[in-house]
Amino acid sequence: MSDEVSGWRGGASFRDGSDALTICNPATADSAIRVGAFALIEVPMAGGKPGELLSYSSRGPLLRGGDGIDIGAPTDALAAVTPLASGAMGWMPFGGTSGAGPHVAGTLALMRQALPGASAEELRQKLLTGAKKDALVDKAGRTAFGQGRLDVAGALGIAPVTGTAPKLVAVVENDKTTKPVLRLDVTDDEPAETMRVRWDLDYDGVPDTEWEPLAPHAFEGKEPGLQWVRAEVLDRQGHVTSTTAQLEVGTVPPPSPDAEANADSGCGCHATPSRAPGWSFGAIALFALAFVRRRRS
Question: Which of 19, 144, 280, 296 is the most buried (most CB within 10 A)?
Fold first, then answer.
């Protein structure tokens, strides 16, 4: 057994080969919603193909009776990782029951927003009765999948959106200048002219623009430095897809002496700047070469 401080490894081991009665604290609490994890992608190490409950997901029944698992939720969804010190951003699969649980918590938050007067028990029942059932759910049984797969639309009592969501690729143009532009390349069945976009220009979770026609966004006037931006794209079917991007806003360079000297004076002639007296590029190169040879000798 491990304690509450150590990592998950080295915990309880079930040696009889049975998946039953593997639920433990805190999922045994009466008020808990017990979530099983099923795969979105193939996970060889956990013995799961897409749609199957993964081997590390606990099974019931509870020791005191009852199914144990209430509902199955997806895991190994792609999630953004915390930006690195260099500002580089990455994505990684966020898995385990630690990845499935937040899907249910997020669904309940949406339900609370849509049904502010509902009690906790009413929300729980809507969540469970709205779950999907299929052949894999029936085969695994109630002690593994509970009431079925998480279905956000079913829990909210609304018609699900059909079709596929658009795919986004953010492309930064004119990076490191004072006027960088962020362009969104969208792959979807409908034309880009019918889509809308809104921008979270400071990436604080609050959109800074209303829904507007899909078009590149210029960042003129933003403060210099690295900036994170989030964009959401909405198509006619109601799909919303988001992406994030990092761009570097540059500073306005001071005018160079050469630029001032070469400025048009209005008389059609230009002044040519002169080099420092007594030195030329060739002389400097010969001096450097002689210095290197002397150091080597």
Answer: 144
